[in-house]
Amino acid sequence: MSTRSRHVELAARPRGWPVASDFRLAETTVPEPASGQALVRNLVMSLDPGMRPRMNDVRSYLPPYQLGQPLDGEAIGEVVQSRSGLLRPGDIVLHRLGWREHALLDAGSVTRVDVGAAPVNAYLGVLGTAGLTAYVGLTESARVHPGDTVWISAASGAVGQVAGQLARLRSAGRVIGSAGSAEKVSRLIDELGFDAAFNYHDGRVRDLLARAAPEGIDVYFDNVGGDHLEAAIAAANVHARFVICGAMSAYNELDPPAAPRNLGLVIGKRLTLQGLLVFDHLPLRDQFIAEVAPLVATGALRYRESVIAGLDNAAAAFIQMLRGETHGKTLVQLTPP
């Protein structure tokens, strides 16, 4: 028997900051699984800043969202029907067909998660793609060394909150974070153990960073781009390593941002700037889980989530996240926990 389900689709391509009318809640019929497929009832879905560029009609590492079609992204759900020996009803699985209540999936495209080892939501945040991004950025790209001074931008977000703590746990000499409110700055220091933090609204980022890191920085984990990247280049020590993970400052701008005006310093300082796509590092997922899950279980690595209830509120929650009004990982609870 087919299943009635709702999904969120892209109604219009945003011009600058997304608005509610750019999204549409629609109803559809999901057919029964064919051989090798499973029907999954989604429990919780992820909202990520990287979804915003896909709403533009431009080529990137992932295809753009299509008008009138359901959005997608990571989600965790429960198998309700299966025609595959790989899955059975009741299994909890991670997949990439979020923004909908039910998903029809090839059994080989999902990952079963161990709900006994960690809360379900954790597999979309601290133990999910966000956590893995932080992990590979510090261990594979920047290769943080004991004593390094590390700066994390957007440090209270899903990736930043993990990256800063992992840097500290790997004996970085000084961990600095930046965020967009006094509340978030306080949390970075008081709850997550950052050595220093600043609100980037409080002045020129270059000046704020210079005060927080008077001896310069050795590693920069960039989630913002723009003036933050320019400030990092100015503060960088010779042979500093930059992990370029995101450019949130540009996602909602109509005009392309000016490049950092001090790129010439990259040469003299012999900086390494490396782009990071977590999809290149998925084989490290088991290693990451084995190392980080015990830290989460013991409380050595802390995290925060902003959980919004209901698919009806997903678009509004996405806009809130882009405006910095959520904390940590932003999730939408699709069914009661």
**DSSP helical segment count:** 8
> Which structural class fits the helix and strand makeup?
alpha/beta
From the alpha carbons, calculate the radius of gyration and give it in angstroms.
20 Å
Note poorly predicted spans.
none
Fill in the keyword field for this structure.
single chain; 337 residues; alpha/beta; Quinone Oxidoreductase, Chain A, domain 1; Rossmann fold; six-stranded parallel sheet; 15 strands; 23% helix
Structural write-up:
By secondary structure, the chain is an alpha/beta fold. The chain folds into two domains: 3-125 and 304-333, Medium-chain alcohol dehydrogenases, catalytic domain (Quinone Oxidoreductase, Chain A, domain 1); 129-279, Rossmann fold (3-Layer(aba) Sandwich), CATH 3.40.50.720. It is 23% helix and 26% strand. It is built from eight helices and 15 strands. The chain has helices at residues 129-141, 158-169, 182-190, 205-212, 226-235, 265-268, 285-298, 314-322, and strands spanning 3-10, 23-30, 37-47, 75-82, 92-95, 102-106, 111-112, 149-152, 174-179, 196-199, 217-222, 236-244, 272-275, 305-309, 329-333. The strands form three sheets. Strands 3, 4, 5, 6, 7, 14 and 15 form a seven-stranded mixed sheet that branches. Helix 8 (314-322) links the parallel strand 14 and strand 15 (329-333). Helix 4 (205-212) packs across helix 5. The longest helix is centred in the last third of the chain and has 14 residues, at 285-298. It is globular and about 65 Å long. The two termini are 26 Å apart. The mean pLDDT is 95.
